[in-house]
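Quick illustration for those who missed Monday's session on complexes.
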Amino acid sequence: MKVVLQIKLLPDEIQHAALKDTMRVFNEACNFIAEVAFREQCASKFVLQKRVYDDVRKQFGLSAQLTIRAIAKVVEAYKRDKSKHCFFRPTGAVVYDQRILSFKGLEAASILTLQGRLTIPMHMGEYQRLKMGRGHGQADLVLVDGVFYLLLVIETPTAPPIDPKDFIGVDLGIVQIASDSDGESFSGETVENTRRRYHELRKALQARGSRSARRHVQRIRRKESRFRRNQNHVISKKLVEKAKDTGRGIKLENLKHIRERTTVRKSDRAKHSGWSFFQLQSFIDYKAKREGVVVQYVDPRNTSRRCAICGHTEKANRKTQSRFHCVSCGQVANADKNAAINIAAPAHVNEPIVAHDDNNGGFRVQPQAPSFRAG
Ligand SMILES: [Zn+2]
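Prediction with zinc ion bound:
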């Protein structure tokens, strides 16, 4: 399984300038190469190299290997969409390989720049230190918020899947980010408060409209997304640990339908939640794989309207965002927990199953009714 390590570089002022300069020129070279590729409709690395190699080296002063990387980057982008002339921002990623990037233990990276090779200190977390040995010197140099990082793709082993005795169903929401079928929930309150606070701040800044205000807005956006990402890491870690400790697998909703299921008023809110749900799900998925915990996806249709006790499905069952009250059998429950139980055991025995064309395959009849603890 492939994982990306994000390693922070700690260049001094002169090194910082050299990296930035190299980045700018590398991307200028990419734009030059992209023009040729598009004009001549050429997606062949070999042909393109013959055509532009000397010009790039002379015009941009790039080293041989950086020139090859620039050509490869353009070919990759061009192959993705041949109908478009691709453009590279001055702060686009620089692609390094083991000939132009090497590591001095865990403390520093030796990186080729326009000013020659520079040895730049790095900062690594514990996890990264552990995994570092698996890197092969293939990395992207990126600039985020004025900070340089190396993004290193490493191969990490996955545990053999554990045959699950049972499943934990996980319901994703806005008020509660995640609720599971055991009745445990991971509150979205702090996330929602932070989102609101950032939203207000952004609105105030956007109203000012100045250049510095716009930059400030960008900074806030990134801060907010880092916060959300961190929350998603914490929640996914807890869920996967619990599943592993109790010998269970995890069932999640297939997010293709998430927007139909969630009540959202504003489009940007929908975007925010959709994206955040997707991130949480992908975190759960890869952490589970790493630990050998089985993950299955189920059709989310009606999970929030169906009664987990009797299977009666009606919109009126869900009285409010948080309260479920079955109009048929009278079950009263927390709405998220009821949904999570439906996800853990999606179809009730008494309920006729209607096949849908876009059924994802995870939707199955469980032989026994799910056990339910009200509350
Ligand atoms: Zn019922």
